[in-house]
Amino acid sequence: MNPSALPRILPGLRGSRALRWTHTRLGQLQRTFDKALPQTHCPLTAAFYTSSYVPRKKVMFPGALDSEYTHELRFASNVESIPTYQVMDTDGKVLDAANDPQVTEEEARKIYKNMHVLNVMDQIMYEAQRQGRISFYMTNFGEEALIGSAAALDPRDQVFGQYREAGVLLQRGFTIQQFMDQCYSNEKDLGKGRQMPIHYGTKELHFQTISSPLATQIPQAAGAAYAMRREGKKLCAMCYFGEGAASEGDFHAGLNMAATIGCPVIFFCRNNGYSISTPSIEQYRGDGIASRGIGYGIDTIRVDGNDIWAIYAATKAARKIAVEQNKPILIEAMTYRISHHSTSDDSSAYRSKKE
Amino acid sequence: MVTPLACQHRAPARQIARLAKRLYSSAAEINSFEPVRGMDLGVAHSKLLLRSVASVQASSELQSLGVADSDTKKMNMCQAINDAMRHALSADNTSVVFGEDVAFGGVFRCSVGLADEFGRERIFNTPLTEQGIAGFAIGMAAMGHTAIAEIQFADYIFPAFDQIVNEAAKYRYRSGNQFNVGGLTIRTPCSAVGHGALYHSQSPEAFFAHVPGLKVIMPRSPIQAKGLLLAAIRDPNPTIFFEPKILYRSAVEQVPVDDYMLPLSKAEILKPGKDVTVVGYGSQIYALENAIQMIERDMPGVTCELIDLRTILPYDAETVINSVNKTGRLVVAHEAPRTQGFAAELAAEIQERCFLRLESPVQRVCGLFVPHPLVFERFYMPCAVRTYEAIKNSLSY
């Protein structure tokens, strides 16, 4: 296409920079079309291919440039489930030496200690709520391995959580006293006693204040990541959410925007099988949340959410891609919510003790 | 004007222009071309617009800001908004403008030339998702950047309602002031345009005026739009800036080219009077101006005080109260539907603060409580005639 024809067709593009961009883009399209031209060898059919008509193998519409024409009427559906990355066996032994996390003993001890502290703190605070000391609490039983993702981040990476990320805060250095201050809404609470328990937030540790509406943090994380990209400090945003929150419109909006605009954000889905009482089979019908990432053009990985080194390795690799290439990554961590949803929930109402 | 068939192919341009008058439009009175009862109505004939350099120099508010004597340029409202964004982008390197179709210039041309000047990294298109746009803007503002997000029509702001109400408005409060989204400004075209019908004509300011933590602004003219938008962008609170779209081209003034900010939460008395206070904002101001002209012509000796609220939340109650304490009568007008519209808030507040001074009930002239119609828009709108009637009722109570 002759670039000098552009002003007539697209009158808005008078600026030279916009014009150059369009010209480059049209050149790319042109080259894609040229590559798609088939070679005709058959003498019989060659007669049909006059110089004015050449059938194209690839679709010409700008919406799907790589799609090829097919004459088979077939509806695409999910055939293969995305595999789940795992590093250790159930005894904690690293199965493939190439996957060894390469952390120091000091770091490994810190992570292990934080997993225990989280577990014990949850037990005590659950009891505290039952005793009437605090109004509400949410435990993290079964999801302690999330701490591995926090260990893989830079301490200045901005964290946007949902509500079951107390482990991330512990790993970052939030003290037991600070946890208590927020849960008891006392005068030392950083949030000034304005929110229900477990709605933690700390500017010092780059952990955005938790809010109750679900999935609202997802497009916010994309925006924050874009701001960090503009600052050029090679930092990323880390966005946690559950598989239920991934049904919200904000999930779709956030991932699509991160992919199209180019935001260094890691979307970390904790797929723990339940949204309060709703099991995942009632939450979605596709191949988990990971399959959706592919739909948005986002590089995706599924990991064993109870394997701390798998989470650690995936997050570390994701961070590198996000920060160096300014694009989002989706990690789906498969785990199980051992606890009740919160102190206001009794999960024996919808699942058996045996489960 | 009927042209004989034989001459039609040679009809001069002027005749064609008159024939081409938009017959489809409900012809919002604001753009009425024909004089009514000998009076010239609408924005085109408004005396409130500062069309000459002399009128700009005479403006006391612009004098107090020090821009009354600066260079001016004839601009319509969309050019003034474009100019304001240019100033904001030049002064603040963290500021970005984004939304649907803003990169090429915007569907209303408000962002023309910005992408060329500041680059596609700062002026960019987003996918079609208002909740995404609002959430993304909140995320950028939470990092201390200045996010100027555009929602293509105010009618489509509702998918973003959760992000705006539950997140943006409460961000600072819920974090104990550790985080805030003061750098967030949402710009959106609003109000009737004559042919917009249900989904291109709404004025949803009342929904947002009910949210603690937000600021809501609606300008009436190019000079106001530029100054208020710059103030909104730089205000350390999340702000929604409603732009009456019918004024984009029809309101033209000599706008100071300098960077200036008009005060937020400060109403402006456009015309002093002693008998009745008339309050409005946005494009409604011109209907009110016409109604007042008709009243003052039909009832000699009566003078009406016209107030432009400018900022709807937090609104300047003091100016209205002082005026009502002087006149004893109040008429409030807005395009949005009557029930639970912003006039209800103003009426309740004034009757509480000025009860014994009021000589007549507070009159509300609003859109009818129906969805915004197309062919019958003329009956829906709180036009100059309905306002005239309300003022008359107030005066003769």
Short description:
By secondary structure, chain A is of the alpha/beta class. Chain A has helices spanning 6-9, 16-36, 43-46, 105-130, 147-151, 166-172, 176-184, 217-231, 249-261, 290-295, 308-325; strands at 84-85, 158-160, 237-242, 265-271, 274-275, 278-279, 299-304, 329-334.
Give an overview in words.
- The complex is a heterodimer of chains A (355) and B (397).
- With 355 residues, chain A is of the alpha/beta class.
- Chain A is 36% helix and 10% strand.
- In chain A, strand 5 (274-275) and strand 6 form a beta hairpin.
- The longest helix of chain A is centred in the first third of the chain and has 26 residues, at 105-130.
- Chain A is globular, with a radius of gyration of 25 Å.
- Chain B has 397 residues and is α/β, with parallel strands linked by helices.
- Chain B contains 17 helices and 14 strands.
- In chain B, the strands form three sheets. Chain B has a seven-stranded mixed β-sheet with strand order 3-2-4-5-7-6-12, with helices on both faces. Chain B has a five-stranded mixed β-sheet with strand order 9-11-10-13-14, with helices on both faces.
- The longest helix of chain B is centred in the N-terminal third of the chain and has 15 residues, at 77-91.
- Chain B starts with a helix and ends with a helix.
- The interface between A and B is large, with 47 and 46 residues.
The largest pleated sheet of chain B is described as: 7 strands, mixed
Task: Name the average pLDDT of chain B.
Answer: 93
Order of helices and strands of chain A: HHHEHHEHHHEHEEEHEHE
Helix content of chain A: 25-40%
User: CATH superfamily name of the largest domain in chain B?
Assistant: Thiamin diphosphate (ThDP)-binding fold, Pyr/PP domains
* Main sheet record of chain A: 6 strands, parallel
Mean of residue pLDDT values of chain A = 89
Q: Tally the helices of chain A.
A: 11
Strand proportion of chain A: 5-15%
Quaternary: heterodimer
Uncertain spans of chain A: 5-14
Question: How many discrete structural domains of chain B?
Answer: 2
Radius of gyration of chain A, Cα only, in angstroms?
A: 25 Å
Give the beta-strand count of chain A: 8
Computed over alpha carbons, the radius of gyration of chain B is 21 Å
